[in-house]
Amino acid sequence: MREIRSLAGMQRQARGWQRAGTRVALVPTMGYLHEGHLSLVCRARQVVGPAGVVVLSVYVNPTQFGPREDLARYPRDLQRDRRLCREAGVDVMFVPDDAAMYVREPGREHSTFVGEQVLSAGMEGASRPTHFRGVTTVVAKLFNLVLPEVAVFGAKDFQQAAVVRRMTRDLNFPVRIVVAPTVREEDGLARSSRNVRLSSEERAQAVALREVLLALRRAVQTAGGAGRTAGALGRLATQCLERFPLVRLDYVAFFDPETLVPCRRVTPGCQAALAVCLGQTRLIDNERL
User: Fold this and answer.
1) What is the spatial distance between Cα 91 and Cα 177, in angstroms, rounded to a whole number?
2) Tens-place pLDDT, residues 61-78
3) Do the Cβ atoms of 124 and 162 come closer than 8 Å?
4) Rounded to an integer, what distance in angstroms lies between the CA atom of residue 63 and that of residue 129?
């Protein structure tokens, strides 16, 4: 496995692959890798095959964090990430330099951002107003640096994948977006780098996300084609969370999985998304109902 840190070096290598006709898959991450990330690597390898190249980027992107969010506390362990990448069969680990990604020199400060205006408006976009501008900007930069044929994202970040797919289409990036299934812990909690920050008491109550989503799915399936109102399901989610005093609900949303348009009446096939806080840790999940 090679490790590339220079932006120019990454672009130079990417152009070489392009000239040689080598298929390239990108797995963008913020590091502190876990089984969920490694499943994305496996999916990337399936797409490009043994003769292709899998690039995994590790970059904690500051522009997708708000001023009171957990940028400084986000877990990091580059040595461990290197070991896991080697074991997973990653060909190139791209670890760009923060100062190069976002120039901060006086008179030369980074001042160009990419923004998606429709799919990013609700849910995470409403709760974290600058988040998706940072996501789409860094993903666009990674696409230009790595020149991948395909990029693999996880279904846990459902809205993010939809926003990136829309940006890719609207800006004509020649990249296919692949969304791989969510990988879960034994008790159903979605794998996340932030899980390590939970105390033992918070970790025990983090199962609330999965329990709420499963309760919502049962309620919708029981109602059948008539569905349930979003308001009634929101109240059901609140009632479920009463058993978990450490869990603070940020939002629960019901929407069409293709358009992300909110559903007033929720029927089978609609998507539900949930965000909660436990202490200083914020977790998200989603489920097809």
Assistant:
1) 20
2) 999 999 889 899 999 999
3) no
4) 11
Rounded to whole angstroms, the Cα distance separating 5 from 255 reads 40
What residue type is assigned to position 242 of the chain?
E
Active-site residue identified among 34, 37, 110, 131 = 37
Q: What string of H, E and C letters represents the secondary structure of the chain?
A: CEEECCHHHHHHHHHHHHHHCCCEEEEEECCCCCHHHHHHHHHHHHHHCCCCEEEEEECCCHHHCCCCCCCCCCCCCHHHHHHHHHHHCCCEEECCCHHHHCCCCCCCCCCCCCCCCCCCCCCHHHHCCCHHHHHHHHHHHHHHHHCCCEEEEECCCHHHHHHHHHHHHHCCCCCEEEEECCCECCCCCECCHHHHHCCHHHHHHCCHHHHHHHHHHHHHHHHHHHCEEHHHHHHHHHHHHCCCCCEEEEEEEEECCCCCCECCEECCCCEEEEEEEECCEEEEEEEEC
Provide the residue ranges of all domains of the chain, joining segments of one domain with +. Answer: 2-180, 193-288
CATH code for the part of the protein at 193-288: 3.30.1300.10
The second-level CATH assignment, the architecture, of 2-180 is: 3-Layer(aba) Sandwich (3.40)
Query: pTM (2 decimals)?
Result: 0.95
pLDDT single digits (tens) 210-261: 999 999 999 999 988 788 999 999 999 999 999 999 999 999 999 999 999 9
**37 part of the active site:** yes
